[in-house]
Design brief:
It contains three helices and 29 strands. By secondary structure, it is mainly beta. Helix 1 (270-282) runs antiparallel to helix 2. Residues 262-276, 278-285, 287-294 and 358-390 have low confidence and may be disordered.
């Protein structure tokens, strides 16, 4: 996630933040280099490596390996790939334009420019294919599957609407196109096995999930009704049962993916009767109004202490419980507990500060109490009483 463009965002050294492919690690690019962290548990969050360089604006790590790819603002057309444990440079590539995004899996490395995509073989870093003359993509929006079964790349197929192009990186062919939204795309994410694709448009109110195999729309969720909401990240859980959505608001939405919306079986009860009545009524309404009534709402939510910041989210099991991880552009990482059965408001379990690690423990503790009182959390259980900033 790019943090700063044209001086936007808080006064921080952080320029870029990314989770690794299974959300067990975190990489941050700063004005002074990059740092790698391991997230072993809710209580064990530690820096494992740092590298001095100027203005690192992109940094990606391949799972928990020693392979790291990064780009600096001082040389925005150059990609460096390193083995950080051996402290050796594997390769150094220059491109015709600014590198906007880098994606990795165990088969390929993707470099995204504004109007082209380069596909490298991860074994020897040779260029095996180039997708040229793509629609203008100034944000470097693209998504890559992380599993071993497939190596699929998704990127915008139009700069005028939400068309998604899916490319097979193993067989080097166009796989399919999906007309996902009326407005241009803002976010894309595959689930771990590459069978589902989540999409969001620049409008930011509706999230859709498609079957990659046939392009069928599986789910449609309404994030909210606010205008001018910028979706910053989409993230599936490992089992593909939950989808987390973060934006520039203070709320992270978690949607539950189960059953199918068109032929959903309702349980007995007044709520079910009311829900069924709404769907019957929707069938008599115009197309757009019908869509609004049939959209599902969030299963669970996270409320962050502030809004207006770019955020990156992820879902993974930690300490035998599902957790929602949120990193904000001001350098704070928040870990919340997700109730997989009831959903609802997620409870803050831990927070860490990446941007200001030099503060004393007294100052951190004081900020911890300030945070708790300012947020006025409705339910602070036994877990939420222990909050660490550091």
């Amino acid at each position: 996630m790019n943090i700063k463009k044209s001086g936007e965002g808080p006064d921080s050294d952080i320029l870029y933040i990314s989770f690794n492919q299974d959300t067990t690690g975190l990489a941050i690019g700063t004005k002074r280099g990059y740092k790698l962290y391991e997230i072993k548990s809710v209580d064990k969050f530690e820096e494992i490596y740092s590298h001095d360089a100027e203005n690192v604006c992109i940094v990606q790590r391949l799972f928990s390996s020693s392979l790291v790819a990064y780009v600096s603002q001082t040389s925005p057309r150059r990609l460096k790939v390193c083995h950080f444990q051996k402290r050796t440079e594997i390769c150094n590539y220059s491109y015709s334009n600014t590198v906007l995004a880098v994606k990795l899996n165990r088969s390929v490395l993707i470099v995204c420019l504004e109007e082209s995509l380069y596909i490298h073989n991860i074994r020897d870093m040779s260029v095996i294919h180039t997708i040229k003359e793509t629609p203008s993509n100034p944000q470097g929006l693209c998504a890559l599957t992380t599993g071993n079964d497939a190596s699929l790349l998704a990127y915008p197929g139009s700069d005028a609407n939400g068309l998604v192009q899916i490319f097979d990186c193993k067989n080097l062919r166009n796989l399919s196109t999906i007309t996902a939204h009326d407005n241009p795309l803002a976010a894309l994410a595959f689930d771990q096995n590459g069978q589902k694709l989540a999409t969001a448009s620049e409008k930011g109110t509706v999230i859709r999930v498609y079957a990659v195999a046939n392009g069928q729309r599986l789910f449609e969720f309404r994030r909210g009704v606010k205008r001018c909401v910028a979706i910053s990240s989409l993230s599936f859980s490992v089992d593909s049962l939950h989808l987390a959505v973060s934006s520039n608001t203070e709320t992270v939405h978690i949607f539950k993916l189960e059953g199918t919306q068109p032929a959903e079986v309702e349980s007995a009860g007044l709520f079910s009767y009311f829900n069924s009545a709404l769907k019957v009524a929707a069938s008599y309404l115009p197309y757009n109004a019908s869509d609004v009534l049939n959209q599902d709402r969030a299963f669970a939510t996270v409320h962050l202490p502030s809004s207006g910041l770019k955020t990156l989210c992820g879902i993974r099991a930690m300490n035998d419980s599902p957790r929602v991880l949120v990193v904000a552009q001001d350098g704070f990482i928040y870990i919340y507990t997700l109730d997989p059965t009831e959903g609802g408001e997620c409870v803050l379990y831990r927070q860490h500060n990446l941007a200001d690690e030099g503060r004393s423990r007294f100052e951190q503790s004081r900020c911890e109490h300030t945070f708790l009182f300012r947020r006025k959390l409705p339910a602070i259980g036994r877990e939420a009483n222990s909050i660490l900033i550091g």
